[in-house]
Amino acid sequence: MIDTQRARTLELLRIHPLMRLKEFAVHGIGPETLARLVRDEVVVRPARGLYQLADAPVDARHALAEASALVPAGIVSLISALQFHGLTLQTPSAIWLAIDRTAWRPTIQYPPARFVRFSGWARTAGIERHCIDGIDVAVTDPARTIVDCFRYRAKVGIDVAIEGLREGLRQRSVTIDQLWRYGKEARVWATMKPYVEVLIADGT
Fold it and tell me: Is 47 helix (H, G, I), strand (E, B) or coil?
């Protein structure tokens, strides 16, 4: 029975790189099996209640999946969303997650996370859903991400916001109309407009 549960656990983790304790329970796998695999260093626990194979590949997208598994209502945003969309060379030291204005601030040990708060239209406008390592991950779309970086420029830096805007226009992953609509909603279009005009004039 122990060997069967062990084999089943490893099989599940190869299919679903990140799994919670309650998800194992559905398959009849108890915490004792997981604890034994962790002791044997075959499985690791990156955060409480979350398990993955010890030799699982670690990359930026995997970290987004881990963060989203721990904060299901969080939205990947700002520099983390820029990186996800390939609009920056920045490598954030923490995952940027947006949570509801009235929500409790989550406490997670790993991966490191930074939080901003969204309310109203910002909770739903321009949110994409991606499946990463079997985890549902919410990410702001490219245009919305750029606008948010201008909105939170005091936190991420105006240079990061400009880089995202330049890359978004160069890669044609955003349109002026999208930027204008989100910029108006976020009340930062007046700040963004001069940068947009300069980049368009330069032929970015």
Answer: strand
